[in-house]
Sequence to fold (281 residues):
Amino acid sequence: MRNLTLNDGNNIPIVGFGTYKATEQDGIDSVKHALLNGYRLIDTAAVYGNEEAVGKGIKASGVSRDEIYVTTKLWRENLGYESAKEELEKSLKRLDLDYIDLYLIHWPANAKNYDKWQEANAESWKAMEELQAEGKIKSIGVSNFFEEHLDTLFKTANVKPALNQIEFHPGYWQKELVNYCKKQNIVVESWSPLARGKVFENEELKAIAKAHNTTVAKVCLRWVIQHDVIVIPKSTTEERIESNIKLFDFELSDEEMKQINELPEFGFSGEHPLFWPERVI
Ligand SMILES: NC(=O)c1ccc[n+]([C@@H]2O[C@H](COP(=O)([O-])OP(=O)(O)OC[C@H]3O[C@@H](n4cnc5c(N)ncnc54)[C@H](OP(=O)(O)O)[C@@H]3O)[C@@H](O)[C@H]2O)c1
Fold:
């Protein structure tokens, strides 16, 4: 598996496994199946309610802990210095792990929900820096941060975020934000690379898939990694789990990359860092 190197020197696989909505037995079975089929990066979050299942899936796979890269996230309603520390301990306990490879602020505090949103992010970050220094977290990063959130965080941070996990799929890939992150040496990770299924009816994607004798899913996932962006598709279907990691047997041409880049906007989730908990569509 190809890795990317983060700005703190740690490596992260370019293809991983998403677990949103994979709970209970589905969570255990899908994580185990993913690990047995070559995935080494598992993405979960406190708010998914499946950290216990993910931990059990990891154990059931028999793959050793040091070969697996585990990401979890601090929920947006629990931001703050003390709270970040407490929440990390709870995640470790639920996952039954001694450390997390990558801990993310799941969504930035916003002005609607925090009187001092800048402080809420900064204080959470300070706690995460300390947890990283203690060895409980290997790398620290953010999710759904716009440029304004990153710039504000830079003012107080001692450690630069290693990664920003954002909505990124054909039809909605936040090009300017991606360019800004790359300029700052912050790796980008894509969430909802299949737009939770909304990519499948797109005729241009279907034509590209046909030309490569592959599926629309694989075209989308391949397009993500050809941007040097990490991809974490979710599936609880065994054959899809197996197929979604086989992305290295074809390549999209520059022309095809451009064509997908330029697709008109579609598939946006409606989840927006400045407006949560409301959606914008
Ligand atoms: N940081 C954030 O705010 C944030 C937000 C959203 C997601 N995420 C992370 O990103 C991961 C991926 O995003 P997501 O789960 O929202 O959406 P996604 O990966 O774009 O789509 C998942 C959906 O696509 C289906 N699917 C997967 N592979 C397929 C294939 N080869 N062919 C046809 N259908 C396929 C799955 O169905 P089955 O499961 O039934 O196979 C599931 O319904 C999440 O699981 C989570 O870990 C993070």
